[in-house]
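Progress note, sequence design subtask.
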């Protein structure tokens, strides 16, 4: 399925890039961050800006390996540390673990809050087509997720349901960010696999609605933390 790019352009702090088309195609940006990391607040602010655009799914994944510095991040999860470590074993990176770090569609990464580099990756991703067709429909009590193959053989894929809190404010009382009030955007609270897809046959699953105050998305990703093939927000 081709990603349709509308002619309307928008200008952000990162430069100019296009809105997604009517098919809802998204660039997925995963920010690996921590409340215990003094270098992370600028990247958190960048993610807040990115989250304002309907062609980007901006997600904050808090990692737990800085908790020993004096502040335990309540939103950190060991599974997010593992996810980041797996990415850095696949993608070109000098690091095994580092914060802040952004990963773009599971295909590339930028370590640090480097605006020019982030802009460059967003430009690249905005020109890529979805590799599969992903459709989400709501009924009275649930939503259905339908994945259809494209002409490209993408192989096995994982289907994930991501739940996140749109906005959270934390007052940091210890550690490197002691005394700061941090505003977080789209903190991921749950990243659960809801199915396997063989890359060939149509695949459908039903899921209950999300709880009030929580937003969600569906991501189809090539197996073993491969490239993200398609993503949609649950609206």
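Output:
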């Amino acid at each position: 399925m081709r990603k349709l790019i509308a002619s309307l352009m928008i200008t952000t702090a990162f430069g100019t890039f296009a809105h997604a088309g009517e098919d809802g195609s998204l660039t997925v940006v995963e920010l690996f961050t921590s409340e215990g990391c003094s270098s992370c607040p600028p990247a958190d602010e960048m993610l807040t800006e990115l989250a304002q655009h309907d062609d980007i799914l901006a997600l904050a994944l808090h990692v737990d390996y800085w908790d020993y510095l004096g502040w335990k991040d309540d939103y950190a999860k060991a599974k997010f540390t593992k996810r980041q470590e797996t990415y850095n074993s696949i993608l070109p990176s000098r690091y095994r673990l580092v914060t802040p770090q952004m990963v773009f569609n599971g295909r590339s990464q930028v370590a640090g809050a480097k605006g020019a580099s982030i802009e460059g990756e967003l430009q690249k991703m905005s020109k890529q087509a979805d590799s599969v067709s992903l459709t989400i429909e709501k009924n009275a009590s649930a939503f259905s997720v339908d994945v259809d193959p494209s002409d490209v053989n993408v192989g096995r894929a994982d289907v994930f349901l991501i739940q996140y809190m749109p906005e959270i404010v934390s007052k940091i009382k210890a550690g490197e960010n002691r005394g700061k009030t941090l505003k977080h955007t789209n903190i991921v609270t749950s990243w659960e696999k809801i199915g396997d897809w063989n890359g060939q046959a149509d695949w459908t699953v039903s899921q209950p609605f999300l709880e009030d105050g929580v937003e969600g998305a569906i991501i189809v990703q090539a197996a073993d933390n491969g490239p993200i093939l398609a993503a949609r927000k649950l609206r």
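Residues 5-234 form a domain with the Immunoglobulin-like fold (CATH 2.60.40.10). Work on this subtask will continue into the next period as scheduled.
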